[in-house]
Specification:
By secondary structure, the protein is of the alpha/beta class. The chain has three domains: 169 residues, Rossmann fold (3-Layer(aba) Sandwich); 153 residues, Dihydrodipicolinate Reductase, domain 2, CATH 3.30.360.10; 87 residues, ACT domain (Alpha-Beta Plaits), CATH 3.30.70.260. The chain contains 16 helices and 17 strands. The strands form two sheets. Strands 7, 8, 9, 10, 11, 12, 13, 14, 15, 16 and 17 form an eleven-stranded mixed beta sheet that branches. Strand 9 and strand 10 form a beta hairpin. The mean pLDDT is 95. Bound molecules: L-homoserine (HSE). L-homoserine binds next to helix 8.
Length: 445
């Protein structure tokens, strides 16, 4: 049979920073191996970046470099636009314009898809083009591929992931060195692990963007960032990490989504995780995602969640997918959110007050008779069952001769609204001397 050699697919990059140059370099370096898989060449022929001199230096003289992203979108030779600008602003406009121009789009932009995904996927569906986003969640870990295809036989029950490297690095350092959050954040910024403005990372927003995308794919619901509960790590104290350790737990910032009889849980917050779970031992800037499916049971995916070549690995996997599928009937392609667009569900996302989980509580209390009884009495009256209690020596907490101490309580599962009521009642006790710390606890079984 005569082999027809097709012209390589032409790719235009919008933005060539850390990830873009990784994509360029890995595509060049592994060209032969990638071609053996894709069956058709993939060529970056155009790059848009405001810093044209830097961009030209990164890609060499054979690639056209322009300052105007719209010149890439307008070029009829370009088949795939890779959006690496980030953010919700101009990136949204350019992605929609690229779709309108009939280009397939690859993006690493979790913020854009978590907030505007519904609009973007609908536009892509109308135009019959693909929007691929493996790099948007957990960088180099092929979690989108796993959820959307590898686990397609399953009813997914829950996902829990360490999906922000910056915060995992900070928490690891806090635990290792016994330091407070502020001190470690400064050090992380000095070393370049945390951005100059780390708000999205440390407040849990970046993790929530990723959790929203995984939730949509796992349960066939629309992306709905506005419904996610988001709490970061800024209020965590070194003492809570230490007490958790003494109770056999580690504290991790988890992105969690769960299907329950009442609706979908979608939440990001610090969580106690049993120290013996593999995911509790994911340290530094690494990412890991646990997925529980009814048929497969619990699975775990681990790797680098950011960085030039790990993220490029995911972007190029999308380019290869598009290369294989772009001549296929649009109906034969894997749907953007794993479920057919006409089979999406409107299962509601639960308000945090309706979420059922267990808790770690730390109360700074007066070290006197009856305090423990009054605290546990409130929990008992509200039907909240205690799993463990740890009381520190007053001297250890407040120094020699101290009259206050820390009381740590682990509870069994209860609905969050009831825990809120218990916290309000406990906080009002005159013997509770400082704001109570509450950290949720996940057993992950
Ligand atoms: N800032 C993210 C992190 C990487 O720290 O994991 C990009 O989402």
């Amino acid at each position: 049979m005569k082999q027809v050699t097709l012209k390589p697919l032409q790719v235009g990059l919008l933005g060539i920073g850390t990830v873009g140059s990784g994509v360029f370099n890995v595509l060049q370096r592994n060209q032969g191996e990638i071609l053996r898989r894709s069956g058709r060449g993939i060529e970056i022929s155009m790059v848009a970046d405001l810093d044209t001199a830097r961009a030209q230096a990164a890609v060499g003289k054979d690639v056209t470099v322009v300052a105007d992203a719209r010149a890439v979108i307008a070029n009829p030779e370009i088949d795939i636009v890779v959006e690496l600008i980030g953010g919700y602003g101009i990136a949204r406009q350019l992605v929609l314009e690229a779709i309108e121009a009939g280009k397939h789009v690859v993006t690493a932009n979790k913020a854009l898809l978590a907030v505007h995904g519904t609009e973007i996927f609908a536009a892509a569906h109308r135009k019959g083009v693909m929007v691929a986003f493996e790099a948007a969640v957990a960088g180099g870990i092929p979690i989108i591929k796993a959820l959307r295809e590898g686990l397609t036989a399953n009813r997914i029950e829950w996902i829990a992931g360490i999906i922000n490297g910056t915060t995992n690095f900070i928490l690891s350092e806090m635990r290792d060195k016994g330091l407070d959050f502020d001190v470690v954040l400064k050090e992380a910024q000095r070393l370049g692990y945390a951005e100059a403005d780390p708000t999205f990372d440390i407040e849990g927003v970046d993790a929530a963007h990723k959790a929203v995308l995984m939730s949509a794919i796992a349960f066939g619901v629309p992306v709905q960032f506005d419904k996610a509960y988001v709490e970061g790590i800024t209020k965590l104290g070194a003492q809570d990490i230490r007490y958790a350790e003494q109770l056999g737990y580690r504290i991790k910032l988890l992105g969690i989504t769960k299907k329950t009889a009442k609706g979908i849980e979608l939440r990001v917050h610090p969580s106690l995780v049993p120290a013996k779970r593999l995911i509790a031992n994911v340290e530094g800037a690494m990412n890991a995602v646990m997925v529980h499916g009814d048929a497969v049971g619990t699975t775990l995916y681990y790797g680098k969640g950011a960085g030039s070549e790990p993220t490029a690995s995911a972007v190029i996997a999308d380019l290869v997918d598009i290369t294989r599928l772009h001549t296929a009937d649009a109906a034969q392609r894997v749907p953007h959110l794993a479920f057919q667009p006409d089979a999406m569900s409107d299962t509601p996302v639960l308000a945090m007050g309706d979420v059922v989980t267990s808790y770690y509580l730390r109360l700074n209390v007066a070290d006197e008779a009856g305090v423990l009884a009054s605290v546990t009495g409130i929990l008992a009256a509200l039907g909240i069952s205690i799993d463990a209690v740890l009381q520190r020596e007053a001297d250890e907490v407040g120094g020699e001769g101290s009259t206050q101490t820390d009381l740590i309580i682990l509870t069994h599962d209860c609905v969050e609204a009831r825990m809120n009521e218990a916290l309000a009642q406990m906080q009002a006790l005159p013997t509770v001397l400082a704001p109570i710390t509450r950290i949720r606890k996940e057993e992950l079984v």
